[in-house]
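BUG-332 | component: ligand-complex export | severity: low

The export step for dinuclear copper ion jobs runs without errors, but we want the raw record kept on the ticket for reference. Input record follows.
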Amino acid sequence: MGRIPLLLILFFATNSSIALAGPENLSIFDPVSPAATPIRDLFMLVFGVIGIIFVITEGALIWSIIRYRAKGDETKEPPQVYGSNPIEVAWTVIPIIIVFTLFLVTTRSIYSLDMQEAPEGALKVKATGHQWWWEFEYEDLGITTAGELHVPEGIPVFVELRSADVIHSFWVPRLAGKIDCIPNRENHLWFQADEVGTWYGQCAEFCGSQHAKMLIRVISEKEVDFNSWVANQQLQAAEIPTEANGKETFLSLACINCHNIQGVTTVGGFGPDLTHLMSRDTIASGAANNSTDNLRLWLQNPDSIKEGALMPNMMLSDKEIDALMEYLQTLK
Ligand code: CUA
């Protein structure tokens, strides 16, 4: 009995230290979505019940150690009880009631959060886990993006979860519980960000060497900001001729086998869509900020940011990298 509460205390302590880490708040204790609040409440209930059991049992243990420790006085031994029906019934029935109550409350929470169909007025998104990045498709809006999921504040979001390769798990702790993305199966999850902000998440199922760098950012914004984001994402890639003619370079390299750019090339799809690459704050699924230096480093050697990334080192010359940088930075 003593070990489980201890683990929970450790978990609690670890989680609150994450909560103190500032913007990267991943704490389940700080929900901003009606899909996450019941999970926090259920945890607090279970934690409270087992906390009381822990205090009572450990308290009784410590009390009896002190009260009846050997003092060479035989008369102070505790009275022994043999075959007491009331006591045996009590320590059988009380745990059964506790376990059954927790079971019912848990089941009720699971069913209340489970949603197989999108509710009225929900934004529908398909999230696909890839080694090691997230693809987000808004089919109704004709948008495909990666790593960063934009949603309007206060509107339910219904996510269909799939996997392109191995099992991943979609987990944004402040918005919803975690649900696995399983090959050849579709799972569902919903959340509703009730505040404007950036909510961080993480793939929660070990899926290979770069599992830890398979991050999720959910950006919830005012509806008007979301709509302007949508309007921009729906545009095809802008034709901005660059001096180094980076578009020709891009089309001449193996980049096009994996990456799509709407209005330019759509034979890829294995890697993230780059049509609006520069509208994202991060690259490599949140592994690095989308800065000029990082993007250049990524083109030179993806392993330097994400060791084992499935984007190969293309052994590009400085001239090719200059041209690609110039082109990619027009994709806003
Ligand atoms: Cu994907 Cu872990």
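Assignee comment: Attached the raw record above. The chain has three domains: 3-113, 123-233, 246-328.
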